[in-house]
Amino acid sequence: MDRRLLLAIVLMMVVAILPTFFMKRPPPPPPPPRADGRSGGPADSVRPTPAEVPRSVAPTARPPDRLSAAEAAETVWVSSPLYRLGFSTRGAQLVSAQLLEYRSFAPGDSGRPVELVPAGRPLLVHHLVVGGDTVSLADWRFTPSAPELRVADRGSLRFTATRGGATVTLTYGVRVDDYRFDVAGDVSGLGPAGALLVLGLGDGLRSVEADTMDDYRHFAIVAKAARTERTDFRSLDPGERLELNGPFEWVGIKSKYFLIAALALEEQRPRFGGALAVGGPRSGKAVTRATVAVTLAVPQAGQFAYQLYAGPLEYRRQARIGHGLDDANPYGGIFRGLIQPVSVGVVAVLLWMHERLSLAYGWVLIIFGLLVRLLLWPLNQKAMESSIRMQAVAPHLKATQERYKNDPERLQREMLRLYKEHKVNPLGGCLPMLLPMPVLFALFFVFANTIEFRGVPFLWLPDLSRADPFYVIPLIMGLSMFGLSKIGQIGVPPTPQTKMMLYFLPVMMTVMFLNFASGLNLYYAASNIFSLPQQYMIARRRLRQAPVAKQAPAP
Fold first, then answer.
1. For the structural domain made of 19-27+74-329, what CATH number should be given?
2. Helix (H, G, I), strand (E, B), or coil: what is residue 536?
3. Could you give the strand order of the β-sheet that contains 272-279, starting from the edge strand earlier in sequence?
4. What's the CA gap between 474 and 506, in Å, rounded?
């Protein structure tokens, strides 16, 4: 079998099979060494988890006042054009985070806005560790500064609670054009030694995708210390405790398209000392929930501050925030170092074309496929010339192989001499096949992780980020690949192997791509179709050169 054909087959199999290996989860990091609780690290006495809320120990000997049934918690709503946040008067917790610009595709939601907080599992559950006691604010009754807040530019909502001589004030500062909001705390009456804040981030986001299990496969804990660390929920066992040692600039929980993260970005303020995650129960074969808490040192003055991001995994928005938050949703899996730069570049080009040309993303992908082929046209021409020269020298190579088959060293020298005399590069036809592969790999991750393509329809396709429900695009892709192979074999002596691969390879690739994102299939099909004219030109030139190759004398 021709080496170039074999290489093409291997590359195609790599394209189809490697994505399954990209999603392998990294092993969980080893448990960090214990640190002093006052230094901001996860102390031995600080091991509460949202799954097992620690006992509420009041700062005085008086037993804590529990909220009675008559004192049902109320929800205070904060609204802007981007979001609608709900804070409970019980613990001043975040019980709702609706993103008004994004629609939920979860069964039963009927196109409602995306809701990130699972029902009955609030976020921002605050615990204060004072000495050997843990004070849970989850059952404190807080009084809001206003019954609701509509944000026109900036605004703040303050919650205050007093119990046993201790006073806690939590202030939420919101912006109209940002999914971040500021959290400032002021604690008094808990003693002069300072405290440690344990902030519960919940046990995962609410799934808002049509394919819930695919969404769960993307659930992960992400944290930024010296570099971004990611631990998939499915890598944990039920009840497994995973401790991450900081300091961290931010710690969050991500789904396929959305992120909730606590941020400690100000230079003069403490970072998060550590994070603790506990695996939840299994759903099917994998853990889909993991309770996450982070620690933050509270100085003697009793004041602390951080930010919370509750919004989409939108690369450009997160890049503007900085501090590596744009890496919370990395492209490329274990090949991130190679794929991430290409993916970022591809996304930038696609978004620029969409905005500047005012075209639907489907047409953008088709034009992008054409542009890639036009850029590769000169390289394909060089590959064509190399292929023709290789075909002309083939009889000489065959004769040389027969003559020196028992002398490998002499055979190698003679083959190199033939390559040099005929100006043949045996790998000259490989580069044009290799160059589109990073783009194809990048697009696989782009459509699996880029929110701009979520729910975007095109023609009969309901969502470019999901598979074609009618399998039309994968079939067109397979037919275009068959056409390329058929034209590519014009002028090439037929063999049983090439005839078999003419049919086997397109069928295999079509089956492999059936469940890939329809946008990826659309790009690949357009790229193949735009390659047909050049492939035909190559075949015609090969036919014209064929008689010369047949008449070449043996050495």
1. 2.70.98.90
2. helix
3. 133-136, 125-130, 195-200, 290-298, 272-279, 241-248
4. 10
